[in-house]
Design a protein that fits this description.
single chain, alpha+beta, four-stranded antiparallel beta sheet, 19% helix
Length: 97
């Protein structure tokens, strides 16, 4: 009986993990130059990240769904985009500020 519960738990864990394997990546630029330390947020979640020294960012292990992604940077207007993230995809979302 204990083995059955262990097997069910393992299968459930695999199923949950398989549902959260999408990603959002992109680059934030101004005049085609990558901007570093720019904050990117998925609105309605607690997920935030910053761009690297070349302006690239990445959100990994996301569940599929509808998201609103926001970029906020001092000296620039706040930008938002609505996106649809599908399972097993890496969606590229770039912003030119």
């Amino acid at each position: 009986m204990k083995n059955k519960y262990s097997l069910l738990l393992l299968l459930f864990s695999i199923f949950v993990y398989a549902q959260e394997n999408a990603a959002i990546t992109g680059r934030i630029t101004a005049s085609k130059i990558g901007l570093k330390q720019i904050e990117i947020q998925l609105i309605g979640t607690l997920l935030k990240t910053e761009t690297d020294s070349l302006g690239y960012y990445k959100f990994e292990n996301l569940a599929p769904g509808n998201f609103k992604i926001q970029v906020a940077a001092f000296g620039f207007d706040t930008n938002r985009k609505n996106i649809i993230l599908k399972n097993n995809t890496n969606l590229v979302v770039n912003f030119e500020l």
